[in-house]
Amino acid sequence: MNILFAFLIIASLGLLLGLGLAVAAKKLAVKKDERAEEILAVLPGANCGACGYPGCAGYASALSKGEAENGLCSPGGAETSAAVAEILGIEASAVHERMVAFVHCRGNNELTQRDYHYQGIEECSGAYMLFQGDSSCKYGCLHLGSCMRVCPTNAISRDALGNMRVDPDACIGCLKCTLVCPTKVIRMIPARGSHAIACNSLDKGGVVRKICSVGCIGCKICEKKFPDSGCTVTNFLSEIDYESPMTQIGEAAQACPTSCIVEAR
Amino acid sequence: MAYVAIFITYIFINNFILTQFLGLCPFIGVSKNSESAIGMGMAVTFVMGIASIITWLVYTFLLVPLDLVYLQTLSFILVIAALVQFVELIIQKNSPGLYQALGIFLPLITTNCAVLGIAIMNITEGYTLMQSFSAGIAAGIGFTLALVLMSNIRERMDLFPVQKSFKGVPIAFISGGLMALAFMAFDKSLLTNLLG
């Protein structure tokens, strides 16, 4: 008999409290913005943070509240922007041009001189702490692959000589590699760009020639002989203006004495 | 006079955190800034006060007449769990920012031994309904006091060059221990001196 009472008491107590909670939950229900969840479904879900918000969920909720600009999602691109615009009932805004990362360096242990042999941890920042890296060129790639490990889509690979290469099709433009790179040799270029300068060195021509056989020596051949290539040399480093037509870039690439102008794809 | 004694007892002499060492998990967990510490303190005070009333009623009018006193802990936990859920709903509705700041520690009030502690203490001390309620509120205030003091200390400590090995939780534990030492100064003689 006692057991029955015990069972009844606890069961009814639980039932009563449960009912009370159910009523309270109905009364105090917080309205969630359904559009935020719909937007989250169309976002790529890479949580890369390229938009500047904490992950896709953060961007989705900011979009639904009208606080964020549409089209900031670089992995999603135009498709995502259009889908988001449809959910929000706004016009699809102009998408920022798709940018991909490019390693502006072709030097490696064969082609570039080294100041010392680095034997520390396999992390570029580690080598950079010791005299800005083991390479004599203080602007180039350190080949230790920090960018490779931080890339969310594994778009960066390292070949046998140590050169890092970004696959422009796999790159989602999240900027993570540019942030982790201590020498800032990884910079963004437009995905449509056919060529890029494979050097980051601001050293004078003579210095570059001495320590690296594939560096830009600032000879200005590209700028002077091929004015329509879009190349301009400042601080002994050639730079391509991707807004220009770049009609002569192919010829300039062939004429470059250190073949520093390379195909980006 | 009995109520004043109850308040002084549970805020200072038997402070739940610093003297009885109950409910230490939010003491370290939510004391990083004073705003969430006050929010947590208010939530716990509310739960303690209401839980004291309901558990007292359940005990006196349900468990004692039916001779089911051994169900005390089980039924108390049930009541406390439901109350915490209720508080969670209220906070989520009225203060989403606080809800985010408290995070996991809000539902964890359910298993906060301080709440169950006050419910059981009310019974063992043989308090009346009103005394139980004031004991619950007082214990909650004591809890809030300890939490707010701690959060202020930690906010200031962030600005000081603490040794790296002590930074964060270790130094918080040490300062918590020193605070507990200070609270040891309050004892029963305080009550007799104050109230005769």
Please describe the topology of this protein:
The complex is a heterodimer of chains A (265) and B (196).
Chain A lengths: L1 H26 L6 H9 L12 H10 L12 H12 L10 E5 L20 H6 L16 H5 L5 E3 L5 E3 L9 H5 L5 E5 L4 E3 L7 H7 L9 H5 L5 E4 L2 E4 L8 H7 L5 E3 L2
Antiparallel strand pairs in A: 1-4, 2-3, 5-8, 6-7
Helix pairs in contact in A: 2-3, 2-4
Chain B lengths: L1 H12 L10 H6 L4 H30 L8 H23 L1 H7 L10 H13 L3 H29 L11 H15 L4 H8 L1
Helix pairs in contact in B: 1-7, 1-9, 3-4, 3-6, 3-7, 4-5, 4-6, 6-7
Describe the structure.
The complex is a heterodimer of chains A (265) and B (196). Chain A has 265 residues and is α+β, with helices and mostly antiparallel strands. Chain A has three domains: 55 residues, Orthogonal Bundle (3-methyladenine DNA Glycosylase II, Chain A, domain 3), CATH 1.10.15.40; 94 residues, Alpha-Beta Plaits (2-Layer Sandwich); 73 residues, no CATH class. Helices cover 35% and strands 11% of the residues of chain A. Chain A is built from ten helices and eight strands. A two-stranded antiparallel ribbon of chain A has the order 1-4. In chain A, strand 6 and strand 7 form a beta hairpin. Chain A is elongated, with a radius of gyration of 27 Å. Chain B has 196 residues and is mainly alpha-helical. Chain B has one domain. In chain B, 73% of the residues lie in helices and 0% in strands. Chain B contains nine helices and no strands. In chain B, helix 1 runs antiparallel to helix 9, helix 3 runs antiparallel to helix 7 and helix 4 crosses helix 5. Chain B is globular and about 60 Å long. The relative contact order of chain B is 0.21. The mean pLDDT of chain B is 88. The interface between A and B is medium-sized, with 16 and 20 residues.
